[in-house]
């Protein structure tokens, strides 16, 4: 059982982050935010995948103004990602966003920072301070380790917000390097009670990025660190949401749709388990209810895993034994395994 770090709770719209709230999965749109229709369509697709919170880049005033339309067209909370320009933050807040990702120290005029913070406070909109390894300030103490530099960079922004009596804060400290990122979060967790948004930044295409992110995010989660997460991938954001939930599921931190247990196959396999598992996975991807399904290649580990799942098969030569809720149901011919499984699952999920 993972013991989570105690953190403050903030709300992004109706979604709680920190405290005893479930760890939420975020993603970021990859459309042009100024194209509200395309952005709404992408967010709707992510809502279908279960995405809890969405963030949109706001590079200019046209994008900031489009947030109002986007907000009206979606159900999940919306965060505006803003750099440097306080006017974009004010416009985003006027557009009704639920959160800001903004580093206050990057806005040079202090009175403008105060304006943004005042507007965020009036609306109870949290601000995420997001420090990335690639954009650290140049005047940091050079004797500090990289993780310490990241923490100090974040603390500069934290101090600005706290001085303005603002504490609806979340913090992220992301690098491509997993040990650096992990250490930065460990250090930060000892310094503040604010919720942590965790992730490995610029982790690459889905093939590499899911692995790097799973290792980094997994280490942190296992240490009880992390209140919300994003898996950053060079790919469609639905892959980010999918990976985020799989990481949480693997640590028993959240339930989300079905899970597939399938054996790796070996010299004992006598049916085409690879094709069968692929077809079952494609079918399961459309379901929302938690359900454990096992596809096992032989009688060595097969019956045990299949019995432990909600439903499963242990295959043999040209056939399989079907188990449901721990009970052996019947033997089915190889050609019928997929259809028999689907028929049973449909009965179970309603
Ligand atoms: Fe091989 Fe059987 Fe294990 Fe599958 S379950 S990997 S077929 S021993």
Your description of this structure?
The protein has 350 residues and is α/β, with parallel strands linked by helices. It folds into two domains: 10-250, Alpha-Beta Barrel (TIM Barrel), CATH 3.20.20; 259-349, Sulfite Reductase Hemoprotein, domain 1 (2-Layer Sandwich). Helix content is 41%, strand content 19%. The protein contains eleven helices and 15 strands. It has helices spanning 36-49, 61-73, 86-94, 110-123, 146-163, 178-191, 206-222, 237-250, 273-284, 302-308, 337-349; strands spanning 10-12, 15-17, 24-28, 53-57, 78-81, 99-101, 127-132, 169-174, 197-198, 228-230, 259-262, 292-296, 311-316, 319-324, 327-333. Strands 8-7-6-5-4-3-10-9 form an eight-stranded parallel sheet. The relative contact order is 0.10. Bound molecules: iron/sulfur cluster. The site of iron/sulfur cluster has 12 residues, from loops.
């Amino acid at each position: 059982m993972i013991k989570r770090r105690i953190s403050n709770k903030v709300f992004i719209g109706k979604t709680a982050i920190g405290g005893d709230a479930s760890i939420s999965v975020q993603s970021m749109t990859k459309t042009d935010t100024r194209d509200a229709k395309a952005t709404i369509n992408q967010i709707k697709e992510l809502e279908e995948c279960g995405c809890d919170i969405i963030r949109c880049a706001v590079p200019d005033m046209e994008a900031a103004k489009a947030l109002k339309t986007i907000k009206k067209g979606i159900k999940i909370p919306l965060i505006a990602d803003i750099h440097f320009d306080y006017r974009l933050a004010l416009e985003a807040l006027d557009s009704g966003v639920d959160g800001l990702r903004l580093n206050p120290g990057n806005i040079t005029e202090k009175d403008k920072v105060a304006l943004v913070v005042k507007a965020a406070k009036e609306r109870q909109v949290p601000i995420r301070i997001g420090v990335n390894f690639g954009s650290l300030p140049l005047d940091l103490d050079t004797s500090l380790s990289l993780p310490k530099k990241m923490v100090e960079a974040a603390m500069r922004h934290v101090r600005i917000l706290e001085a303005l009596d603002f504490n609806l804060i979340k913090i992220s400290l992301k690098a491509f390097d997993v040990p650096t990122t992990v250490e930065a979060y460990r250090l930060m967790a000892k310094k503040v009670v604010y919720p942590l948004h965790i992730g490995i930044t610029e982790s690459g295409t889905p093939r590499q990025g899911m692995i790097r992110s799973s290792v980094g995010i997994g280490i942190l989660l296992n240490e009880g660190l992390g209140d919300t997460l994003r898996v950053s991938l060079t790919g469609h954001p639905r892959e980010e949401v999918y990976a985020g939930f799989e990481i949480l599921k693997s640590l028993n931190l959240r339930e989300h749709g079905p899970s597939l247990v399938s054996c790796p196959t070996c010299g004992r396999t006598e049916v085409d388990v690879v094709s069968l598992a692929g077809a079952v996975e494609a079918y399961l991807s459309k379901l929302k209810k938690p359900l454990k399904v096992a596809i096992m290649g032989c009688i060595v580990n097969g019956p045990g895993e299949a019995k432990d799942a909600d439903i499963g098969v242990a295959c043999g030569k040209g056939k399989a034994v079907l188990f449901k809720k721990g009970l052996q149901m019947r033997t089915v011919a190889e050609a019928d395994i997929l259809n028999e499984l689907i028929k049973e699952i449909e009965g179970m999920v309603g």
